[in-house]
Structures are given as structure tokens and as C-alpha cells.
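Box 4.2: Ligand-aware structure prediction
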Amino acid sequence: MNLVFTDIARMYGTHPTGHHALKGAQMAEVPFIDHAFLRCSNGIITETGIMEQFSPEVQESRVSLEGKWLIPGLVDSHTHLVFAAAREEEFRMRIKGKSYEEVAAAGGGILNSAMKLRQTSEEQLFEDACVRLQIMMAHGTSTVEIKSGYGLDTASELKMLRVIKKLKESFPIQIKATFLGAHAIPAEYKTNRTAYIRLIVEEMLPAIHQEGLADFIDVFCDRGFFTPEETATLLEAGLRYGLRPKIHANELGLTGGVQVGVKYGALSVDHLEHCGPEEVECLRHSNTIPVGLPGTSYFLGLPYTPARALMDAGLPVALASDFNPGSSPGPSLQMTWSLACTQMKMLPEEAFHAITLNAAAALDLCADCGSLSVGKRADFCVMEGKPSLALIPYHFGINHVAQLYVMGRPCSGPQASSL
Ligand SMILES: [Zn+2]
């Protein structure tokens, strides 16, 4: 199927083909084409250019996007969107002054989600996840990573990963699955952590491998969760099954998560609300991408990831929603973008790259998405009004995306936020 979109007022993110993650100062420059066209074949971009050089081809359908402007589909490299129930009671507790760690100690947090998920059927989890994914798509997300980690026993972790597999088969957008059995120590293993780690290594990983259910492995390496030594054991085991690490690191303190992630070749280390000179130096000598999750800092009142310091050190920075029921219940990357600008002092252009090209790199998908380049998927958001990247994070709290296209086809989603 050959398609050409013409008369586009402006098209942002027209990087040269094969572009990789953008580092430091490179993040501030967004290439664009005015009065443009974009041609695709079977959902893959084959040509971009200015209308003055456009000539129609036989056997192609033409769609005029006159007066509209485009950005690449947004890439959310860190979510927990398969879950059983919202946790608004904990929200109330935290408003009254309890910390995230205190809520977790009182039986809330991840273990609360695990208890509810174990009682929920695969069908129900799938149905609920579909609604959430459609809302994310309506807000411009065309690639998403989804983690397990609310099962914390073999059957329930497999159940979550099968839901993600079914989402992959049911949606046109790109979905990547990450196994996060080491999200927390389940209550029944509280006094025997080693036995739970053994369960992950000896039972969960082989079962997941057999069904081909995961693309990556994750560990919550932090104070009160998994130590760097335990993380090393788990990442080594994951690598034996071909699962590259993407880990939760340094949300609650300077706990060695960045160093162990880099040591095992992690694609990304995510969170980094706590990130000092040693962590920055460690990342500078690696290909690991630091990922900030400003929605979590906003919702929990944590420090923000020091994106400026990371960029000043010449590093590529990515951002993600961390969409989950406990610490970041907001699925919109447009909100992430706005928080990055107002709270992390990232320029609109830098934050744009952090949720497109650099987020694609955090999923090893730079060749497929993250920019409107020849050879990549024709995934893009159509916007109306004055073309301006800065207006998106500036007018926060509204949806700027008029229409998401995935592989050159319009995808509609509900505008209502019935999460
Ligand atoms: Zn997370």
C-alpha cells in the first residue's frame, strides 16, 4: 500500500536515516521541513521533502494534511500499564504525610498491587490494559514498553506477560515486554529473600524463555528492594536467556544501581532521582541511557532526575511516563514533556528528543522509530494550529494530538480518561 501525505505545514524530527541517540548539546536542535510531504510504502517511510519537489506517483493514495503539522509518534520506554486496580487510598495516605516507603511498609505499594493482580483474571487484565493503551495512543504514544512485576509468583508473572503478548498481537503500535519479577520481595518470602531470587532464576526465567514472553529484564535495585549483588545475580541469569537489562535504579538513594546496570550492559538505567558525580562519570563510559521519570517525582514529591547535569556531561537523556497505579498514574507523555521543561529545566526541544529518538534508543529501536526518517515506521502525531514544539509543554494539561497515525494509518482512541 503506497501512501503520500502532502501539504504538511511543518514536519518536526526529520533526522537523517540511521540516526542514533542524541547526546548532550545535540538534543537542543530539532530538524524540520516546512511545506512538506511524506511518502510511505507498507507503513515504512520511503521519502520526505518539500512540496516544491513533490511529484505524484502512479498507484499511490494521496492524503492532504493542509494546515496541519507533524511530530514523530511518541515513545514511552518505561510503563507498568498492566495492573489490577488503582491505589487512590494510598494517594490519600500520602497526602496526609506518609512517605512512599511508609505506605509500602504498611502493606500498600507494589505488594498491594500484587495481591490484587493475583486475584484478577487474564481476560480482565487484558480488557483494562486495552483501555489504557487506547488513551495513551490518543495522547500520541506509538511505541510503548510494558513491564510485569505485579505477579511476584511464577503463575502470576506469566499471566502478566501473556497479557502483554496479547496486547502486542492486538494493537498496531510497537510494544516491548520487560520481565520485572524482581520488583519487590513478596510477603511469603520476606524472611527468605534468597529463595525468591532462586525462584526467579530457576523457575520464572526458563518458563518465560520457553514461551518467548519477554524482550528485556528489569530489577528494582534500590534501598528496601534488591541490593546491587542480588541485581547482578538476576541480570546475569537474564542475559543467559538473551534478555538485555533495563533497570530501576537510584529512586530512593545512591544505592549502586547505576554502576551494576552499566556493568551488565543495561540499555537504560531508569529513575536516577538520586544521581551524583560518580553515577554521571560511570554513565559517561558506557552506552547505557539514563532515563528520567518526572511523573514519579511530581506525584511522590521526590527530587527530579538531574537532566541538565547529565546533558552537560555529554550524555543522551530519555524520559518516560512510568505509568503505574502507585507512583505515576498519568499516561500522557505530553505531561512528562511539560514537567521536564518546568521542573527539570530541559528546553522543549531537548525534552522532545527525550520522548522520541532517545526513548527509542532506550528500547534499542532507533532504527525503527523516534524520528520521521526514511526506513522508519510512518508513526506520527498530527497537530493543528500554529506549528510550535514549545506550545505543547507550555499549554500543559490538554491533549494537543488531533490524530495519531501508526504505520501510515489513522488510529482513533477514546478521549475520555476512563482509566
Ligand atoms: Zn517503574
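In the box above, the bound molecule is zinc ion. Residues 78, 80, 248, 322, 324 surround zinc ion (CB under 6 Å).
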